[in-house]
């Protein structure tokens, strides 16, 4: 089999609205740090000078949001109250792992342009594939926005889904929808301008807010969907990091091709 990386790196050198801080202790600095930690927390005395080259282990410390890099949004990200089940949306550590290992389908939205596509547009892309996704399949949206990753334009120029398009996929039994864009919704400017022009609140984050009515997850900030062998014929693995009580978790998403 082939394993195709579908993930955007966490990169402190790239442009982010919430900048990533990545601090690195070298192996020599790590030796001093570990010596101090062992003394402080465990009462163990240890001299780094006794180590080969006076080095132990490097240590990376990062400060970032759970929505930096490729990540999975949990139902609790969409709001504090769900209009399904017992009314409590689940966090990322509470979701079934089976959701995140399933046959995949790619829908091509590259020519759609910035904004949001609706159910009728998405229907044309499903017709191109020649079949609908099966229940439990993971649907990935290739918008081409990943080519802008690391730049300000990545956060302003991409294609998202409106409520009708999101409902269409959920009606088919899809529980995880992924995109190579910053968000599953339209860009901020597009939504806000549309709201100011119409006064219609339903244009604000509709794809996310569908998650208040129906339980599902999003994979955002995927990369390289064009490396997959076709619209189908592969499996997606996108297990989220188990962060207790979190609304999202990072993932190393991959496509697995027999």
From TrEMBL:
One of its GO terms (biological process) is L-tryptophan catabolic process to kynurenine. Pfam families: Cyclase (PF04199). SUPFAM superfamilies: Putative cyclase. GO terms for molecular function: arylformamidase activity. This is Cyclase.
């Amino acid at each position: 089999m082939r394993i195709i990386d579908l993930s955007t790196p966490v990169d402190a050198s790239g442009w982010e609205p919430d900048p990533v801080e990545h601090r690195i202790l070298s192996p020599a600095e790590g030796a001093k740090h570990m010596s101090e930690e062992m003394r402080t927390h465990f009462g163990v005395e240890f001299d780094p000078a006794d180590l080969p080259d006076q080095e132990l282990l490097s240590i990376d410390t990062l400060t970032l949001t759970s929505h930096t890099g490729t990540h999975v949004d949990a139902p609790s990200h969409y709001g504090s109250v769900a209009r399904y089940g017992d009314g409590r949306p689940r966090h990322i550590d509470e979701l079934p792992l089976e959701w995140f290992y399933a046959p995949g389908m790619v829908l091509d939205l590259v020519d759609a342009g910035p904004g949001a596509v609706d159910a009728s547009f998405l229907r044309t892309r499903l017709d191109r594939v020649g079949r609908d996704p099966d229940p439990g399949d993971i649907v990935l949206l290739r918008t081409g926005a990943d080519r802008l990753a690391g730049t300000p334009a990545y956060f302003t120029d991409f294609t998202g889904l409106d409520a009708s398009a999101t409902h269409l996929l959920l009606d088919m039994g899809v529980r995880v929808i992924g995109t190579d864009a910053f968000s599953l919704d339209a860009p901020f400017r597009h939504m806000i301008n549309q709201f100011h022009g119409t006064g219609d609140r339903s244009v604000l984050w509709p794809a996310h807010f569908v998650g208040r009515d129906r339980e599902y997850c999003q994979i955002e900030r995927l990369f390289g969907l064009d490396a997959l062998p076709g619209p189908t014929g592969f499996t997606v693995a996108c297990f989220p990091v188990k962060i207790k009580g979190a609304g999202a978790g990072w993932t190393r998403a991959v496509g697995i091709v027999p």
